[in-house]
């Protein structure tokens, strides 16, 4: 009888403790949501200002200064000009781990066609020509949520202990900013973080977030191949070595690397995106230039694709009796890899913040991100995608035959600001509080 009473008492104590912990978690989530609500009017103004004044890679001077002022006002120690235009903001709150939260500064060299009242009409010089500039990848949403999360965490500093390392990174769109910041002493001039976090917009429903353990985004490398021939008159091809024929054959033949050399169970793609040759229709030129991209998740797949591309180009040229082609492969970035241990520590907090049904398991994305640079340096990392569209629009777009919603890099990409920014604040704050929260 005594044993049964003790067991009942233990269960009662456990239930009381569980209920108390649940109440504390609910109160903390409510506090985060309240902070996001209070901060939003100022964040909306910040978002619209950033959206209307985008800047391209390594030219984000105005953008960086705007964020630096926001972070200094919150009490962060801010260092500007890291990696040319990046900034590092540090907030000390007692002994504990260092959590790095990254946002991006740069916009895209493209025209916005959303028709929004605050749409960008900014222009800049890119690759020697004038172009429109737009935040069509959602970096303005990220920056507003980044500032909002910083405000929230400072307001709730009695609930956590450790160091915040908020970084604003330049040149993500050209996959160069992370390396530039690291080369400029990101982890030597400043504390080396224990964990790195980043969020990114997608075309899902606002109020939802997606992430997965393991590969989250692909590795990216670029290539340029110059096939060299012998030019001549289009009416006498026998007197020439036609580089256009070689380049066209390569475009087709290189896909056999994907279908016959790569493990079909693993992701990998080789895309030729530019084919430049000749000037008029009756002249066979003396060279043809191809440019493209290579994407993969696993290092071993990456090696298969790179070796196969090089070998195919050489064999195509040899088969035509042409000189060896010039092959330039420019290493890009590795795959974004999410750490299992980090997810295990924060998943419950994110579910508590948004609701368990709003936290989804992501499929690996085929696009690439230089956030991968930090994980490759040994920092456990987590990269999350969150939605930006009304749920009913997402549902309608998923129906057979429906037009897909504009995705990142579309000139019509137009997140709904308030719920999107608040979602970014909630998931960032919940994750940091789970990592640094006091027991």
TrEMBL record:
InterPro entries per UniProt: Amidohydrolase, Bact_exopeptidase_dim_dom, Peptidase_M20, Peptidase_M20_dimer
Q: Which top-rank group of organisms is this from? A: Bacteria
Write the signal peptide boundaries.
1-23
UniProt domain Peptidase M20 dimerisation: residue ranges: 222-315
- Indicate yes or no for the key word Iron: no
Could you list this entry's UniProt keywords, alphabetically sorted: Hydrolase, Signal
**Pfam families under this entry?**
M20_dimer (PF07687), Peptidase_M20 (PF01546)
Determine if Glycoprotein is one of this entry's keywords. Answer: no
| NCBIfam families membership | amidohydrolases
Q: What is this protein called?
A: Amidohydrolase
Source organism per entry reads Pelomonas candidula
């Amino acid at each position: 009888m005594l044993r049964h009473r003790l067991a009942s008492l233990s269960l009662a104590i456990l239930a009381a403790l569980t209920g108390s912990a649940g109440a504390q978690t609910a109160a903390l989530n409510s506090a985060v949501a309240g902070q996001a609500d209070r901060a939003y009017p100022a964040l909306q103004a910040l978002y619209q200002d950033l959206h209307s004044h985008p800047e391209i890679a390594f030219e984000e001077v105005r953008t960086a200064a705007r964020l630096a002022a926001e972070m200094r006002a919150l009490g962060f120690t801010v260092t500007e000009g890291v990696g040319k235009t990046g900034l590092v903001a540090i907030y000390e709150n007692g002994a504990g781990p260092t959590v790095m939260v990254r946002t991006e500064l740069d916009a895209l060299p493209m025209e916005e066609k959303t028709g929004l009242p605050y749409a960008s009409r900014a222009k800049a010089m890119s690759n020697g020509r004038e172009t429109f500039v737009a935040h069509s990848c959602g970096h303005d949403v990220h920056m507003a949520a980044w500032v909002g999360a910083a405000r929230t965490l400072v307001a709730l500093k009695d609930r956590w202990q450790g160091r915040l390392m908020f970084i604003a990174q330049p040149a993500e769109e050209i996959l160069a900013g992370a390396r530039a910041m690291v080369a400029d002493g990101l982890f030597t001039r400043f504390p080396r973080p224990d964990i790195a976090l980043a969020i990114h917009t997608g075309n899902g429903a606002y109020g939802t977030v997606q992430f997965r353990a393991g590969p989250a985004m692909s590795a990216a490398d670029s290539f340029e191949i110059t096939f060299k021939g012998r030019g001549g008159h289009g009416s006498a091809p026998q007197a020439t070595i036609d580089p256009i024929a070689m380049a066209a054959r390569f475009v087709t033949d290189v896909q056999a690397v994907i279908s016959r050399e790569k493990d079909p169970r693993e992701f990998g793609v080789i895309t030729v995106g530019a084919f430049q040759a000749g000037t008029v229709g009756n002249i066979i030129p003396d060279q043809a230039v191809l440019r493209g991209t290579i994407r993969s998740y696993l290092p071993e797949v990456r090696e298969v694709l790179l070796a196969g591309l090089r070998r195919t180009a050489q064999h195509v040229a040899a088969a035509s009796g042409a000189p060896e082609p010039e092959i330039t492969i420019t290493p890009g970035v590795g795959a974004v890899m999410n750490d299992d241990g980090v997810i295990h520590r924060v998943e419950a907090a994110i579910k508590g913040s948004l609701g368990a049904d709003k936290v989804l398991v992501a499929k690996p994305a085929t696009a690439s991100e230089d956030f991968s640079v930090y994980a490759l340096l040994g920092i456990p990392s987590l990269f999350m995608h969150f939605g930006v569209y009304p749920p009913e629009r997402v549902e309608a777009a998923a129906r057979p035959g429906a037009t897909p919603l504009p995705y990142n890099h579309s000139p019509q990409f137009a997140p709904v600001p308030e719920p999107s920014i608040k979602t970014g604040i909630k998931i960032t704050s919940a994750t940091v509080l789970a990592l640094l929260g006091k027991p």
